[in-house]
Structures are given as C-alpha cells and as structure tokens.
Write a structure and sequence with these properties.
By secondary structure, the chain is of the alpha/beta class. The protein has twelve helices and 14 strands. The radius of gyration is 19 Å and the shape is globular. The protein binds nicotinamide-adenine-dinucleotide (NAD).
Length: 344
Amino acid sequence: MSDPHRILLTGHKGYIGSVMAPILVNAGHDVVGYDTGYFSDCTLVPDGTTLPELQKDIRDVAPADLKGFDTVIHLAALSNDPIGNIDEGWTTDINHDATVRLAELAREAGVGRFLFSSSCIMYGMSDGGVVDETSPLDPQTEYARSKVKSEAELTTMASDSFSPVYIRNGTIYGVSPRMRFDTVLNNLVGAAYTSGTVKVLSDGKPWRPVLHVEDVCRSFMNIMDAPRQDIHNQAFNNGADHLNHQVIELAQMAVDAVPGATLEVLNEPSADQRTYKASFAKFARTFPDFEWKWTARTGAQDLSDTFEKVGLTAEQYSGKHFTRLKWLNHLLDENKLDRNLRWT
Ligand SMILES: NC(=O)c1ccc[n+]([C@@H]2O[C@H](COP(=O)([O-])OP(=O)(O)OC[C@H]3O[C@@H](n4cnc5c(N)ncnc54)[C@H](O)[C@@H]3O)[C@@H](O)[C@H]2O)c1
C-alpha cells in the first residue's frame, strides 16, 4: 500500500465520488468530503461510506477548508453539457471560478497534489480523428469550455511544491450509489432492462471512449501515488485504447446483457453523429503496470445484474432522480434551489 494521504475529496456525494470515497478509505487514506449535496436524495444502491464532510458550496470555499491536506481530488462540478446550456453562468462560476479559487487556496495551504477531473469532451468531436493530449482543443459547450479554462489557469499555478494534474476522462459507466442514466452505456443498459429495446438514433458508427467508474477511481489513486516527475502539471487521457467503442457495439453489449432484449438502429438524419477516438498511449507509457479491470461487456452485465437485484423500474430509469438536469430542474421548480443554484 502507498503512504496514506490526507485527502479533500470534493463532489464525494456524486456519481464518481460515492464510488471513490470507499475505495480511498479502504486503501487506508484519510478522506474528508466536500459537497453541497445536490444529489444526496438520488440514491439507487446503498451508500455505505460515511465520511467526515463539509456540506458546503464549492463557491464558498475558505482557507480553513484546506488546512492539513496533502492532496485535493476535485470532482465537484455541474457535470454535463445540458446543465451548462440552461444557464452558462452556473457552469462558469462552479466549474471554473470555484476551481481556480479552490486551487489557489490549496496551494497556499501547502497541498502538494491537485487532481482535476477533466474531460475528453474538450477536444470537440468534429472530424472523427484520434485525439491525444497534444491535439488542439475545440470546446463546443460551456461545460467543455469550463474544463479548458480551468486547466489553463491551473497550469499557471504549478510550482515546485504544487502539482496540478488534468485527468481527461471519457464517458463513465458502471454502478454507483448516485447512479446516472445520462451517460451512454448506463443509458443503453437501462433501456434494455426497463423496456426490452435499445434504440440507436444514429447509424451507430460514432466512437466513444468508455470507462468503468471503479477503474476511474483506481486510476485517480494511481496518479495520486505516482512519482511527482511523472504527473506534475500533466494532462492524461484517462483510459486505454481498447476502451474506445462504436455506439453500435455498446448497444449490442447492452442487448446481450439483458435476456430477450432487442436492438433497433433508427439511423435518423438529425441524430448526433459526432465522433472521436481518444489515444491513451501517454497513460499506458507512464503507468505500464496499471490494469484496467473492466470491459464494456463485463460492465454492461454488472449493470444488468444490479438492475435485476434492485428491481429497477421504467419510472426510475426515465424519471428525475438519475438524470442530472432533470433533478436540478426539479429542485428549482420546488424552490429548493434559487436561480443561482443555492439552497433556499
Ligand atoms: N461521469 C462522467 O462520465 C464524467 C466524464 C468526464 C468528466 N467527469 C467529471 O468528473 C466529475 C464528477 O462527475 P460525476 O459524474 O460524479 O458528476 P455528478 O453530477 O454525479 O457529481 C458532481 C458532484 O458535485 C457536487 N457539486 C456540484 N456543484 C457543487 C457546488 N457548487 N458546490 C459543492 N458541490 C457541488 C454535486 O452535488 C455532486 O455530488 C465532474 O467534474 C465531471 O465534469 C465526469
């Protein structure tokens, strides 16, 4: 086991965070969570880990919140494009401005490593080429721009004692206490399970890199433990080349995971045909011993088995609890959140 770290884990009550928290704790690390808890009531499977935590908005982060940590893992964010499209200001404030302030305070407090959860979405998806960490960035949405701008500012903060790392994830799937059905493979297996049919709107040819949430968490931990010279101020496409799949392959795996389910390829002219493949050569070169334990196929089967165990209903699948935008709209409609996404 690596030396224990004292970690501030932001976003610990979200999709990735609620899987990462127990993995870090079980590895012997001392973890404090920091989350405003937008999705605390959106739990599909029990969340067994209780962390010491700050229930607080990341926009209000203060110097005292960073005292005594050697590592920050920063997941807290509005986590997809559609939310950024309702009000760009929210995504700018939370994903960019608060990230920069958190990093500044972390650096002042003597935090050595700052792992930023970024996204391959920043490459854009225009021409279907293979993108690596040196490829031009072409962010198409406020969400993607927030990641690009944050990385750019964090880079200027890197110093002998402060090592930011930019972990550019593909689309993540797999079972989490705070499940999401608005990511591709979770969505496809959920459709297969609850309706018996998977409909692919496009021709199915677009490529996506997909990663299992547990592998993502182990990969973050691996980067946290790596020698400083390997990760200091570096961007990594997080994943492996064999984890790039065409949507049609993912849809077939979803169907195969659910007995009796069928596949329909609609090939609608208006469907999203954006496509990109990510190169994970830098990750493989830097961390030759890291093992990606899950494949999309084993992950799809595990999703289906879990849906069977919890008795997932069509209402749960398409309702508000497990689609980030729908749930935030619900909290706004109920006046639980105000127009600045703050609790009333
Ligand atoms: N899930 C994916 O496929 C994916 C892919 C690439 C990158 N990422 C990035 O990884 C991170 C985590 O993603 P996720 O899927 O777990 O998202 P999520 O929406 O499930 O979790 C985000 C968490 O951040 C918290 N949060 C949001 N705004 C906050 C604020 N103002 N103050 C305090 N807490 C706040 C939420 O309450 C939530 O618990 C995000 O930065 C996301 O952009 C995710």
